[in-house]
UniProtKB/TrEMBL annotation:
Recorded GO MF terms: DNA-binding transcription factor activity
Protein name: ArsR family transcriptional regulator
Alphabetized SUPFAM superfamilies for the sequence: Winged helix' DNA-binding domain (SSF46785)
Pfam families in the cross-refs: HTH_5 (PF01022)
InterPro entries, per the entry: HTH_ArsR_DNA-bd_dom, WH-like_DNA-bd_sf, WH_DNA-bd_sf
Top-level taxon: Bacteria
Entry coiled-coil feature ranges: none
């Protein structure tokens, strides 16, 4: 249990340190809940247009948030449109 709390704390600190916007956090939460199936480092394919529709965002904003999440280390680009959550 203590290890889980440390992981969550580290994850929250990473989110704060990279000054994620509301759209970034919304996208990250959506990816964790819908695509990653609550599993760390599970790879999943992202359709940016579909996600933009799901979250009522514009596709360029989804693209920008994905780039920011990858740069922050919270999301890992595994291949073309293939990502994983890095907690």
């Amino acid at each position: 249990m203590a290890g889980d709390i440390r992981v969550v704390s580290s994850f929250i600190n990473a989110m704060n340190n990279h000054k994620l916007s509301k759209a970034d956090v919304l996208l990250l939460n959506h990816l964790m809940m819908k695509y990653a199936d609550f599993e760390q480092k599970k790879s999943f394919v992202i359709n940016q247009s579909k996600i933009a529709d799901d979250l009522s965002l514009k596709q360029p904003n989804v693209s920008r948030s994905l780039k920011k999440l990858v740069a922050s280390g919270l999301l890992r680009l595994e291949g073309q449109n293939l990502f994983s959550i890095q907690i």
